[in-house]
Write a structure and sequence with these properties.
heterodimer; A: 380 residues; alpha/beta; Aspartate Aminotransferase, domain 1; Aspartate Aminotransferase, domain 2; seven-stranded mixed sheet; 11 helices; 13 strands; 14% strand; globular; B: 94 residues; alpha+beta; Alpha-Beta Plaits; five-stranded antiparallel sheet
Chain lengths: 380, 94
């Protein structure tokens, strides 16, 4: 199989990930915070190690400000609904995924004001346009780091600096960039960082997290058992207990811990450079195929390893089916859970085919995919 | 036996301290806080030698973790006793 669907979930994973999941289930699945036998205590040490590794990866000073969630969507909902109140103003980009667009749309019903900064033809938002949309009551800027539709990278550090100067909380959706591009929350002025564990971080599905700066306090999305202060009817105020109720996904976190260790060893920047070579080659060659339209930043411009395209009027779903039938190529077709982004780039009616290489993609995989796209374009 | 028991609100805090101290070559034991010291229900504690109190408290300050109580522990099982320590005044028994 040629796997070009890493933007949906990464595959394959480093072998240590599956080993860690299996080991946790078979030998060590104690429940941290609930008791004191060695399985539970050992599990708590593993969870803490994972927090520390994530903190190292993202330049986070205090690992206890990282809260585990089931995925980036849960982390984003936690951040958005934990910060905003009726009467607050929030700003996002026109490239957002539904996991930002839908919660914000929902909050409009309860009196939250929403502005959307329009991206340009490449899918990039201009900092000045963000600044023009700020209001006296702007509480939050919620923005994705890179588009899951076309790979466009937003100027997060510049927008974060603007937010910091104005006292506005900066939430970044790193669904496509955590583990895939270098992220430093301090240098990029990020107050809230939502990330999935199973995409660029190469961990298991069902893992993710939210970093919460010490400058920000969130209302929890859920209250419940934390294994701490059990006789108090109120949710603890200290982190991560404040936001982490219920038993954690320990097998998932064990796998995530190993995948983050892998990334720290290999280096995110080094892996990103390798993927950039593959992605730029893919874009350059796709753009030369008669009948193929490639979306997003042009060849040579920075982008995440996400490439959307169409072949003339062909249905993207049929193209994806044909890619799998002819060469066992796995990719994604359709609207990628991002209607707003498709509206922005003009593909809201058609959707697109999406190729997303990962750290284990080879140049020969890209060549094979290009060959099948060429065949399909020739016959379309 | 005479050791020190430092109580914390959360196992997450205790796990951070244990790993941070381990990196400095200090071994501490993690345990559930004994009932007589758990005023608010479940909590966790660190048991250490008196000599390790200084690095432990220094690590607490570094990570902004506030101990819920510091005690000297004497006796065994049914005879365990805890005496609150005021580190400004008291010196744990050695």
């Amino acid at each position: 199989m040629i796997y070009l669907d890493n933007a949906a979930t990464s595959w394959p994973k480093p072998p240590a990930v599956a080993r860690a999941v299996r080991n946790m289930l078979a030998r060590a699945a104690g429940n941290p915070g609930r008791t004191s036998h060695h399985l539970a205590m050992d599990a708590s040490i593993m969870v803490q190690e994972c927090r520390e590794n994530l903190a190292q990866l993202f330049g986070i000073a205090n690992p206890l400000r990282i809260c585990f969630t089931a995925n980036a969507t849960e982390a984003l909902n936690l951040a958005i609904k934990g910060v905003l109140s009726p009467g607050d103003h929030v700003l996002c980009s026109s490239m957002e995924h539904n996991s930002v667009w839908r919660p914000l749309t929902k909050l409009q019903e309860s009196g939250v004001e929403l502005s959307i900064a329009e991206a340009d033809a490449c899918g990039v938002v201009d900092v000045a346009s963000v600044e023009r949309l700020l209001r006296y009551n702007t509480k939050l800027i919620a923005m994705l780091h890179a588009s899951n539709v076309n790979g466009a990278i937003q100027p997060i550090a510049e927008i974060g600096r603007l937010a910091r100067e104005r006292g506005i909380t900066m939430l970044v959706d790193a669904a496509q960039t955590a583990g895939a591009l270098p992220i430093d929350v301090e240098a990029m002025h990020i107050d809230l960082l939502a990330f999935p564990g199973h995409k660029g971080l190469l961990g298991p599905q069902g893992t993710g997290g939210l970093y919460v700066s010490e400058k920000v306090d969130l209302r929890p999305l859920k209250e419940g058992g934390t294994g701490s202060d059990s006789n108090d009817p109120h949710q603890p105020l200290y982190y991560p207990d404040h936001l982490e109720s219920g038993t954690l996904n320990l097998p998932g976190i064990a796998g995530l811990n190993e995948s983050v260790r892998y990334l720290l060893r290999r280096g995110v920047a080094k892996l990103a450079r390798r993927k950039a070579v593959l992605t730029q080659h893919l874009i350059t060659r796709l753009a030369k195929i008669d009948g193929v339209t490639v979306y997003g930043p042009a060849a040579g411009l920075p982008r995440a390893a996400v490439v959307s395209f169409n072949i003339r009027e062909l249905d993207p779903v049929l193209v994806a089916t044909e890619l799998e039938r002819r060469a066992d190529i796995a990719c994604r077709a359709g609207w990628h859970c991002a209607g707003l982004a498709h509206r922005t780039q003009g593909t809201q009616v058609t959707g697109t085919v999406r190729f997303s290489p990962g750290p284990f993609t080879r140049m020969s995989d890209i060549e094979t995919a290009l060959g099948v796209v060429t065949e399909l374009a020739h016959h379309a | 036996m005479a050791g020190c028991l430092v109580v914390f609100a959360s196992l997450n805090q205790v796990a951070l301290l244990k790993r941070a101290l381990y990196r400095e070559g200090v071994y501490v034991e993690m345990l559930r806080t004994p009932r007589c010291l758990s005023s608010t229900g479940c909590s966790f504690a660190v048991r250490c030698q008196p000599a390790d109190m200084a690095p432990l408290l220094q690590t607490c300050r570094k990570w902004k973790i506030e101990p819920g109580g510091i005690f000297e522990e004497t006796g065994e099982l049914v005879s365990l006793q805890y005496r609150p320590l005021d580190l400004d005044k008291d010196e744990p028994a050695r």
